[in-house]
Amino acid sequence: MNKIIFSIFLVISCIFCQCKSAEDDRPICIYKKSGKTIEQQFPFNQSDRIEIVSYDSRNDTVGNLILDGRFIVNDIYDLVVLNKPQTDSLFSLLYDYERNKNAGPVRYADCYNPRHSVVFYKAGKAIAFWEICLECGGQRQTANTEFDKFCHENTCRIQELFINAGIKDGIIPEQCASTKNNP
Question: What is the number of H-type helices and E-type strands within the chain?
Answer without folding.
Answer: 4, 9
